[in-house]
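Annex B. Sample input.
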Amino acid sequence: MKTRILAILEAFLLVLVPMTAHAASQSSTGDDRYFVQSTKPIFETTFGARNVFSDGFTADLSGTQLWFAKFMGLKVYPVKRLNILPDQAVATPRPSPTHQVPWGVALLQGDSAVPSGGASVSVAVLDTGVDTTHPDLASRIAECKDFSGDQAVTDGSCDDQNGHGTHVAGIIAADGGPDGKGIYGMAPGATLDAFKVCSDDGSCWSDDVAVAIRTAADDGANIINLSLGSDSASSLISDAIDYATGKGVLVVAAAGNDGPYPASMDYPAALPGVVGVGALDANRAIADWSSRGDNETTEPYSVQEGDIEFAAPGVNVESTYPGGYAILSGTSMASPYVAGLSARYWQFGATHPAEATRELLHSFAQSHDIPPVGDDDASGFGLPIAQ
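Annex B, continued. Sample output.
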């Protein structure tokens, strides 16, 4: 009898597929994405699965679909949203950079020489996309994918209508352009995987971010930069980060712009498997708005959940931007400095290169501590200036 009932329900679902597909196409653009805890293909088809995970799938559900899912006894959970962590001012692009070697690059490398390094290192930038036609980035792009569109993943598309992702990418690997008159990032020899996970308004769905993290790891990325976050953790993203770090990927993320309050870090930067980075200015002073960690209540120099790991340049940072160059501020800018520095000093010869690179940056930072002394809430290990 039970088998017969299930057969009738599945037949009913097959009839319902066109109706629910139409409903999905008519659904609002609000908070209507859900994780459906089911591995049955019939439900994936019925509800128009967007991203499939080991224990379920996500889908944009209309009110009718949500009601029906619950009627069928399925466990359904809202999918978390995140946002990029932008400067509060609107950027005004300029046609040429003020300085070819930005102050942040000069600070972390110890001089104002044109930087080099990062060859054979792959850095995935999960953001609002990247302007792949920018002369200082065009030769650096290895992959271009859009995880934020109507389709789950679109190859060859990563257009950046926001500017945030292009700015972040330039901090990591801008190479001065074909004429050598552009701007330079920390590791101009590195290659970039430009993964658009956020819409043009800077909002991002956690399932799209999670799939992009897993894709970057599977595609061989050495480093992932996440200049995005939210006030609480997403299990989809946490699981994806565990997957990536398990494959030897170093994940770097912006601490957030919610300072100066203790324990104000955003996720995923607050996760112990992620290098969380706060922002400082050209005078090596921590920005008042840079989120703080919980370091002073945990074991010193041992990264635990909620701890900040480094401080890096994040105030008045010039970098690539659609249409030229722009100055932005935020921990979004500090994170790619550490990602770029990691690419520049990637420890290829180590048994575990990501762990060895992270430890090397720890040694850099402890040699250049900034007030207050020690593993503090504002800067963690300190400022990672190359030895």
